[in-house]
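Most newcomers find our protein records easier to grasp once they have seen one. Each record describes a single protein and holds just a pair of labelled lines. A learned vocabulary of local backbone shapes supplies the integers on the structure line. Nothing more is needed to start thinking about how sequence determines fold. The record below serves as our worked example for the rest of this section.
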Amino acid sequence: MNKEGLGLVIPVFIFSLMFFFSFFLLGALLLLIGGVLFLIMTIFLVFFFRDPKRKIPQGDDLILSPADGKVFSVEPFYYHPFFDSGGKRLSIFLRITDVHINRAPVSGTVKCLRYIPGRFHPAFKSESSEGNEQNEIWLENDRGKIVLKQVAGFLARRVVCNLKKGEKIEMGEKFGMIKFGSKVELLLPKEVEILVSLKEKVKAGETPVAKF
């Protein structure tokens, strides 16, 4: 399980034990119901914060999926300051049942981290790409530039990113997560070849989504 979940799993599990202990002392049915509900919540949180191992493919021309989920859209964008031009935007929608740990799509250097405050539209709406709270990670290597966006959604109101400007990261390396369902986007140079199709399921650090 990812360490980000410990701050939630431990207190919820303790509440469950307290309700069960109180039930055995007092015998009140409501205490038993409370214990069962908190136990179910504990199991869900352990499931949500699971951290499965991934087999990272090799190839410095590959661009891997940064998140588990389903390819939501592939469309052009017309300007971004990191590129000084347009390119291709690939969006991945994360359901609440998906693994929410984010992984680096390429090996490279973190050129910039940019936090953008905003609203919390549902992640499947087009306005969430620009209007929602999000974190941008600008990556560069010998092959080119990539912008990775962690976009908060209606339920996902906390984005975790453990990177620093100037840091080097390896392809498939874990660097953060978005809690409770949202969207991750890749802004790619227009010359890249997209390897996935709409509605295709992808896995973070394992599925090649594009190629330089």
